[in-house]
Amino acid sequence: MEYFLQQLINGLTLGAIYGLIAIGYTMVYGIIGMINFAHGEIYMIGAFIAVIGFVVLGAFGVPGVSVALALAIVLIISVVVTAAYGWTIERLAYRPLRGSTRLAPLISAIGMSIFLQNYVQLLQGARRKPVPPQIPGGFQLTSGGGFDVSLSYLQIIIVVLTLVLMLGLTWVINRTSLGRQQRACAQDRTMAALIGVDVGRTISTTFVIGAALAAVAGVMVTLYYGVIDFYIGFLAGIKAFTAAVLGGIGSLPGAMLGGILIGLIEAFWSGYFSSEYKDVAAFTILVLVLIFRPSGLLGRPDIEKV
To answer: Per the record's keyword annotation, is Transmembrane included, yes or no (predicted)?
Structure first.
């Protein structure tokens, strides 16, 4: 039971990170019907900015004075920079292809993903970048059979921050003018433009919000694992996309649910079977869901009115 509880905590933490990345996928798809395969690389860029930020702040002794201040500064810088990346990518790689066939922006997204991977590799090198532990400590929940169940402060921060961002984004979508514009564009972009919605600005803002959430996930994963490289965006992006499809792409609660499920599947499979096949287990679950429920767990099937 103690081992099960520890794997549950680990799975929820990992799932919260996947959920943050998956929200970016599902927001973009919900509005323009396109999978932004470069989203994983935005997450990777956010992680690298976090590493650079902690190194620079460490040179000035900021983490030694206040870890909370250092974390806040790194989060703000990472969100601002990656939001700028998201806006630029939408303007350069996706907006010119908005009126073309659905295949063209998909190819552009894959090309942008490859470009960003190599761009970061050339700038930062191919070696892994370590980060010293910034938030040590935690709670020991229980102990039994020579096994201690621990809950670290960082795991608490990751889960709580994810819940706060999820609730805040849900409020924005449901209660604000921007949210109404996003929902209008998701239903019919042509009609939304006719009633005065700035479709281009709404889509750009959606990319910026998704990139900001990916930046937060990048900072959290940097603190959680303590090491990153230029390739982490590809695998995390594929898993987050899997989470979005599993939960029901186009649904924000579905993206978070899918992320948590993928995290739990990986944690329990690694704990009770073999960690080498945890990705196979996650994608097998995805295939089964697509076979028996193609719209995902919380998604709604598209109904075409004629």
So the answer is: yes
